[in-house]
């Protein structure tokens, strides 16, 4: 979908810039929310010397490259995560715009994938999935299921329900077998959000991809943490769920269609 009165590159440039700006805000959320800090005040500052960052040193993507990943004042290192989040969000918005144009689905999925990107990095570093993001996210997914072209209202409600019941069932089963918690309730709320936005079928695809990736990631972490028994390795499953959700939004339908063609043959 595209507005015929404008060249397509204008939309790419506009939403790429908007995505980078949103990514800059997501970096604030990723850093401050787990620490219990306000995402509004104070203004952006260096995490090392706490010097406020002027706007000309806070241009998304470009400033990190220009300063070579260091603070302009104390020369302390600035994590590459800031660059990755801004670039990833910019490319996400361009990709969504390419697929959905100026449509309600574009804006709905932009909100959803922005949440996924932030939660990806929060869970990766802190192994928490803040309620202030997952619960409102699930509510937005349910409230926007009408104009969301990816789902019907039945699929959205079923996805939300499966997102709650499947992980709760797994948690209960793991408790019966091992007498300990195998998955946090944050994952339940995240899966409910994913199901509300993507529907039941895509939720199951997300679970399948994340489970395989989580097992492989757990094996890598176990190899890196030789002193930790395999069953005790802490895997940030929310990170894998968010990454899988991003993949399913862009390539899930194509992968399923290819699978169906292969199955028919």
Task: Describe the overall structure.
- It is a single chain.
- The protein is mostly helical.
- The protein folds into 2 domains: 1-102, no CATH class; 127-265, no CATH class.
- It contains 8 helices and no strands.
- The protein has helices at 8-32, 62-66, 80-100, 104-126, 131-143, 153-178, 185-224, 237-264.
- Helix 5 (131-143) crosses helix 7 (185-224) and helix 7 crosses helix 8.
- The chain is globular.
- The two termini are 33 Å apart.
- The relative contact order is 0.10.
- The model has no long low-confidence stretch (mean pLDDT 91).
Number of domains: 2
Oligomer: single chain
Helical coverage, percent range: 55-70%
Low-confidence stretches: none
Give the termini separation: 33 Å
Shape: globular
Question: What's the tally of helices?
Answer: 8
* SSE pattern: HHHHHHHH
Strand content: under 5%
List strands and helices in order, with pairings.
Layout lengths: L7 H25 L29 H5 L13 H21 L3 H23 L4 H13 L9 H26 L6 H40 L12 H28 L1
Descriptive terms for the model:
265 residues, mainly alpha, 2 domains
Task: Please give a quick description of this structure.
With 265 residues, the protein is an all-alpha fold. The chain is built from eight helices and no strands. Helix 5 packs across helix 7 and helix 6 crosses helix 7.
């Amino acid at each position: 979908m595209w507005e015929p009165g404008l060249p397509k590159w204008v939309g790419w440039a506009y939403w790429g810039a908007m995505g980078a700006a949103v990514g800059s805000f997501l970096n604030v959320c990723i850093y401050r929310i787990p620490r219990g800090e306000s995402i509004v005040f104070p203004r952006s500052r260096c995490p090392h010397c706490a010097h406020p960052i002027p706007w000309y040193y806070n241009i998304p993507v470009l400033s990190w490259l220009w300063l070579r990943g260091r603070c302009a004042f104390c020369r302390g290192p600035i994590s590459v995560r800031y660059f990755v989040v801004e670039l990833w969000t910019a490319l996400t918005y361009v990709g969504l715009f390419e697929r959905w144009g100026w449509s309600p689905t574009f804006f709905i999925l932009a909100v959803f994938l922005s949440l996924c990107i932030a939660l990806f990095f929060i869970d990766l570093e802190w192994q928490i999935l803040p309620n202030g993001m997952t619960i409102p996210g699930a509510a937005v997914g349910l409230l926007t299921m009408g104009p969301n072209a990816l789902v019907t209202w039945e699929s959205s409600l079923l996805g939300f329900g499966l997102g709650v019941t499947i992980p709760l069932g797994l948690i209960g089963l793991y408790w019966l077998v091992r007498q300990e918690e195998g998955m946090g309730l944050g994952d339940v709320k995240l899966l409910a959000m994913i199901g509300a936005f993507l529907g039941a079928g895509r939720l199951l695809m997300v679970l399948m991809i994340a489970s395989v990736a989580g097992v492989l990631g757990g094996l890598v972490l176990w190899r890196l943490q030789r002193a930790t028994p395999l069953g005790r390795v802490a895997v940030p499953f929310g990170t894998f769920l968010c990454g899988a959700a991003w993949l399913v939004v862009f390539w899930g339908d194509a992968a399923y269609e290819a699978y169906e063609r292969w199955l028919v043959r």
